[in-house]
Amino acid sequence: MGDSRFARGSVPPRDAGREWLIDAVRARFPKLATALGDSVFDTMLDDYLLREPPARRSVRESGARLADYLAREPQYPVWYSELARLDRAHVDVLHAPARATLRRCDLSLERELTLVPACSLVELTTQADELWHAIDRGERPRRPHDLDWPRCVLVWRTATVQDRVLDLDEAAALRAAVRGTSVVELAAGFRGDNPRARVLDLVLRWIDAGLILG
Predict the structure, then answer these.
(1) Alpha-carbon distance 153 to 160, whole Å?
(2) Rounded CA gap, 56 and 113, in Å?
(3) Nearest 5°: CA angle at 139, between 135 and 142?
(4) pLDDT by residue (tens digit) across 79-117?
(5) Strand pairing partners for 157?
(6) At a CB cut-off of 8 Å and minimum separation 6, what does 81 contact?
(7) CB 129 within 8 A of CB 153
(8) Residue 197 in contact with residue 205, Cβ under 8 Å?
(9) Domains of the chain
(10) Spatial distance between the Cα atoms of 119 and 64, rounded to a whole number of angstroms
């Protein structure tokens, strides 16, 4: 028999198993935990586990649901969810399987271009990426401001995990590559005097960075 003091869906007092889950979730969102501080992070996590029972099943479920939960709950600032997405992207990319990548000599205009598993695109409306890097450098966290214009951050792994902010046209092209595309298809959507040249520059940069499946 369960303890009748706790309604269905409520979170019981912490036990060893639940403490392990909380510590594991914190390890997957280290920058968010640092930015919020232990007290605020623990309170948020308690509320999350109370409102999202499936998140209590495993660390994987917890990690997959946290950013979306923070994004839809109005009591949390937008940057909470965006910093969580960056944390998750770095962890997911670190553990993604390694795959053979395309070489320059194998590129053709019609060849399908698909991104490797070890990369992720994170859409931001705040300076959450600047906060992420400030914490990574050991600096004191400061609340990120809203952006005048949204930005997209690419997170990927070669020998190490890296990230960078994308230009608008490159972000749009990489979103297409998530679905599968080609140089010809990308060039059809670009503007300018020589769209194919711009696309080739981008694709060669992706190949050199190890972003395209071989």
Answers:
(1) 16
(2) 37
(3) 75
(4) 999 999 999 999 999 999 999 999 999 999 999 999 999
(5) 161
(6) 67, 68, 70, 71
(7) yes
(8) no
(9) 7-76 (no CATH), 97-214 (3.90.930.50)
(10) 16
